[in-house]
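Hi there, hope your week has been kind to you so far. Do you reckon you could talk me through the fold, stretch by stretch? Thanks so much in advance, here it is.
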Amino acid sequence: MNNISAIADAADMIVSGYAFSAWGDGYRVLNLNRTNSAAVLTKEGEVLETSMDDIELAIVLDYFRDNRRFLEDEDA
């Protein structure tokens, strides 16, 4: 549980249980409720890697598109 708390605390944004963290030229996304479910996205929202099924990935990409401005905003 401590690892999940640390990941959540370090995340740049959390939406509906998904932690989004800046990483290199993109973002790492982790499902905090099912930690074997993750994705790596480019800053444009292209999927580089994932262990999510297609439905979950579509949901995450919607969250990303709807909230991307909060990740890009340095003051958020």
Notes: The chain has a mean pLDDT of 92. Residues 45 and 64 are 7 Å apart (CA to CA).
